[in-house]
Amino acid sequence: MTxxxxxxxxxxxxxxxxxxxxxxxGLSGGAAIPIxxxxxxxxxxxxxxxxxxxxxxxxxxxxxxxxxxxVVLVTSGPGATNTVTGLLTALMDSVPxxxxxxxxxxxxxxxxxxxxxxxxxITYPVVKHSYLVKDVAEIPRVVREAFHIATTGRPGPVxxxxxxxxxxxxCDAPFADEVDLPGYHVPGRADPEALxxxxxxxxAARRPLxxxxxxxxxxxxGKAVVQLAEKLRAPIVNTLLGKGAADETHxxxxxxxxxxxxxxxxxxxxxxxxxxxxxxxxxxxVTGKVDEFCADxxxxxxxxxxxxxxKIIRPDVCILGDARLAIEDLIPRVExxxxxxxxxxxxxxxxxxxxxxxxxxxxxxxxxxxxxxxVTRGQAVVSVDVGQHxxxxxxxxxxxxxxxxxxxxxxxxMGFGFPAAIGAKFARPxxxxxxxxxxxxxxxxxxxxxxAAVHDIAVKVLIVNNNYLGMVRxxxxxxxxxxxxxxDLEGNPDFVKLAEAYGVKALRIRRPADIxxxxxxxxxxxxxxxxxxxxxVKEDNVFPMIPAGAPVSxxxxxxxxxxxxxxxxxx
Length: 571
Fold this sequence. Notes:
- By secondary structure, the chain is of the alpha/beta class.
- It folds into 3 domains: about 10-170, 3-Layer(aba) Sandwich (Rossmann fold); about 190-350, Rossmann fold, CATH 3.40.50.1220; about 365-545, Rossmann fold.
- It is built from 23 helices and 18 strands.
- The strands form 3 sheets. Strands 2-1-3-4-6-5 form a 6-stranded parallel sheet. The protein has a 6-stranded parallel sheet with strand order 9-8-7-10-11-12, sandwiched between helices. It has a 6-stranded parallel sheet with strand order 14-13-15-16-18-17, with helices on both faces.
């Protein structure tokens, strides 16, 4: 008797198993039913979400916490288009992700069939690559290529769109172990000549600065970066996404730079005579006014993506390659520099311009986040949403280990923090995982409380509730004469009662005296998800702050006593 051939969907799932996939985050629908059916007999665990955007952020958090690609499965039409925000988030931050979407049958493509959408066309700008499968025999090759593309070089999301007739059809194609992509090249080790030029420039520098970005996180370059810093006796700063690449508690580390970075990190940026970007892309939140950014400093750029070279800043030396390998190869070439005076100046700035916040006048978000760092001892995985709480968390929750800080950087996606934390907890069940969210962003994906509750995922959620879209309100106060528009979140629910309606443990903090006790209670609770609602001061602003498009030297350290000019041409 001839054995029954697997369907395209069954072959697809077998391919995913061969890639080591353990979890798929998804929401079912008609065009994807054959694939969901194939998962019934698979060891791959399906995590049923409440919205497709939540699925992408869970896969994103899973990937950021591990370095392994997160996988999403959705249906056609709106199911697929609901993944666009998550795809953009992953693309902007170089996160490996595979999104598999069911599609209407091949015979009705282009005929406006029910729930048909040109998914590959719609998502073209927000993926690293995409596939519309046209032959069931292509499935093994496409899956192998998709995982290779998503995880190599500069990582990113890949979409696979599979018509329902193909996922239902028999598939006798063999598994693919090799890829043949003639136009796709992954950089190897850095050019020795470029490394030599960089070493000479570093030798001549008296005020060097290592500027560390997300590429250093992705390549696990932190140990090498610290070794380079210690050999050079050079201070380190990181971007928002670079947190954790190098231990932020290291004596040479000055913390986060940029728009809401520490004053002492930004002072070092202003006064350095050499700045070396390691896996960082000279983002506008870092550079401010580009033509005044480190105008007199030598610039070295290490990146795995050649498209980033000369895109914003024209470096003196470009080093193409994996950040970890490049720095490891550079270390033997460099010599200790005469930086004692420079380090003393940096330490002086650290002492003169510490992070601070009022100790009176109500419950302060900064106080809550400062204590969260102490309660967790800096060992928790922290996933943040977008807004004022994000910047305060970046300032006060120092990150000591790689892949312990999850954050939507380039896209600035509200609603990211909570589902990303769920994904991270699925990936690392042994770790304590905290989501730090605002009341605005949390409401965009709060339905995933059901997902966390159903799976008994012991993720902790700190809602910093100021009843405002706080960052926009801050800009309106500082630059738009406090003409508040579209920022008052009147109508917020009682988040404690809301969490309890999902069967989730919930706590409330109203007084500074309750902070440590409530945070410890949540931190030690591992029987399921736990929500902590901090009812903080409504009108508080994040400082330091560099106005958008302004030079770093225009940093505002304390609340201004005069009217500020409205930013022009910047967000």
